[in-house]
Amino acid sequence: MPNQKISGFDDLTTAGITMSDVVGVAAYYDNGGTLTNVRFSGSDILQDLDSVLAQGETAVNKDIILSDGGFNQMTLDINGLSRNNAGNFTWSGTGRQIISNTASAAIDAIEILSNNGPGTNASILISSRSPGTGKLKLKTATDIQVDLPTPPSIGDVLSAKNVNGDVEWVTPSSGGASAFTTLTSADVIDWDYATDGPNIKITLGAGFTNIITVDTIGEFPDGSEGWMIIDPSASTDYKLPDEDYGSAVTMKSLLPDGDVSLGANPVLFHYTYDGTTFYWTKFKNMLEALNYPPSIEYDTSNLLMYHNPKSFNQAVSGSIAGLSDVDNLLSNSFGKMTTSSNSGGTFEYYVDGNAEPNNPTGAPFTAWVEQVLIE
Q1: pTM of the full predicted structure?
Q2: Do 344 and 255 belong to one domain?
Q3: 170, 150 in Cβ contact below 8 A?
Q4: Is 337 left (phi over 0), alpha (psi -120 to 50) or beta?
Q5: Which of 283, 302, 330 is the last residue of a domain?
Q6: How many CB atoms lie within 10 A of CB 46?
Q7: Measured torsion, CA atoms of residues 169, 174, 180, 184, in degrees rounded to the nearest 10
Q8: In the chain, N or C: fewer CB atoms in 10 Å?
Q9: Is the dihedral angle over the CA atoms 197, 201, 205, 211 positive or is it negative?
């Protein structure tokens, strides 16, 4: 009804209408210095809305743009919220902040992305540390997936790669479960657990001090164990990881009776690490087996003893000293043999099947013993 006088006011809720139902609103504007009357409808407001919506109203096919009057602005549209301001964007509240998605069978239903250009190293921080000591909880009905640039193999675990807390996929290992890594002899031989693993081999180099070092206390996992093989054929100079010889502060190496002697043949070490100390067990003078039981292809029911000439003195020939113990290599009730005090017999040892001038039949060995005592 044109030119109708408005003498009383109802709000939209009391009137039971929405903004689009409003036929006209009276106002005035500055028309070159002259205040001029103007009218517009509720639909006009909704069509030109670019900042604030009345509660319960909808801006159809329109964006909401918040601007500081210059370049910086933020746009809310049907697809989401975007902004071109390089400053911080803050979402804050005093209650619980909840992001929820009720979509069914959706892959990556909620994403938090940091899409920076080449050459940037953007990160995403989720912190519950300040203030107080809050926990960060991850709860899932199935699996947790960690997608690093290098994919894992089945059975790999996440391991710290540096003191900054960066992690990587590594294949778990323990003594006997990893291949040996050969380390090069030098004055200082750095043993890096992450690179070299728990098992190493070293041929000690002549002219080097061959000091084995571990840089940090936490480099080897607490409770880890493994093996080390040392070849001392060229040198017997070496040091185990210890703070006294350049390893991490408080690190120690302990051996039974402190015995670090090697000998001339390969030495096998086993260790257990408790977080600060290596506990070593040493097996030195590792040799090829000497006294294998015979491969006998005839009736052994009446065979009482078997011995190998190498069991005398690990030689292939020579004199048999008096009162020498000669092991019986058969598992029966008879024990070892002991030569008499006046024994002076000799023996020669031949490879089984090899015919030689003094052994034309190729017998495995020949031995003469004047007298033995059987225990």
Answers
A1: 0.41
A2: no
A3: no
A4: beta
A5: 283
A6: 19
A7: 80
A8: N
A9: positive
Give the pair of three-digit tokens for residue 43: 């639909």
Asked whether the beta carbons of 277 and 254 are under 8 A apart, the reply is yes
Q: How far apart are alpha carbons 306 and 334 in whole angstroms?
A: 10
Residue 228's domain comprises 181-283
Tracing tokens 């002991």 back to the chain, one arrives at: 338
**pLDDT by residue, tens only, the chain of 375 residues:** 455 555 567 777 777 887 778 887 778 778 888 888 888 777 777 666 544 554 445 555 566 666 666 667 777 777 777 777 767 777 778 888 888 887 776 677 787 777 766 666 777 888 777 667 778 888 888 888 888 888 888 878 888 888 888 888 887 655 446 789 999 999 999 999 988 999 999 999 999 999 999 999 999 999 999 999 999 999 999 999 999 999 999 999 999 999 999 988 999 999 999 999 999 999 988 888 776 655 656 566 666 666 665 555 545 555 666 666 666 666 665 666 666 555 555 555 555 555 555 555 544 444 444 344 444
Distance CA 76, CA 331 (A): 90
Q: Which two tokens stand for residue 210?
A: 């061959």
